[in-house]
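Exercise (ungraded).
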Amino acid sequence: AQSVSQHNHHVILSEAASLELGCNYSYGGTVNLFWYVQYPGQHLQLLLKYFSGDPLVKGIKGFEAEFIKSKFSFNLRKPSVQWSDTAEYFCAVNKFGTASKLTFGTGTRLQVTL
Amino acid sequence: DTAVSQTPKYLVTQMGNDKSIKCEQNLGHDTMYWYKQDSKKFLKIMFSYNNKELIINETVPNRFSPKSPDKAHLNLHINSLELGDSAVYFCASSEREGLDEQFFGPGTRLTVL
């Protein structure tokens, strides 16, 4: 069965620190990859997605992610976090060519302190 | 303009009751979904519909019955509510089945007492 792992459950950073959140998936076929963010009390919003092409994907709000196929990874990065980045971050994977089924990781809670 | 909307936002009810959550999308998408987010924030798909037809049912108890009167609406009816049904339920939609980004609604926080 396909699974998605986010190893960092809770990350605390000071403003301006750099961020990297890990995401690994277990499926060996072609996948589409997503990072979603959930700000406190709000719904999920898409940060970025990878379908094909350049494995370095740029998203909104200065976030980027790199797809490394050999490592089954899709880590999220931001060079300098802001207090407003405090949120829950979810990695999600969709198997290519089958019925839509986003499998989510367990989420990483990011807390940015001033 | 709200893309994916859900009602109600909060729902508090007693065990054993039957309740419904409504979802509507105005994006013209073909595919709609229901997800459950538990107290640990874990998100899991429950159902997906494509053009009013069920395509995914993820071993959800049959007390949960989705209904899609048209492709813009996917409602969730829950019979005989149990304590373990307490969660946040998110509706989502995507343009097509399979590949696309999913757009999420604001969620419905269900509390079963």
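Further reading is listed at the end of the chapter. For now, observe: DSSP finds no helices and twelve strands in chain A. The two ends of chain A are 41 Å apart (CA to CA).
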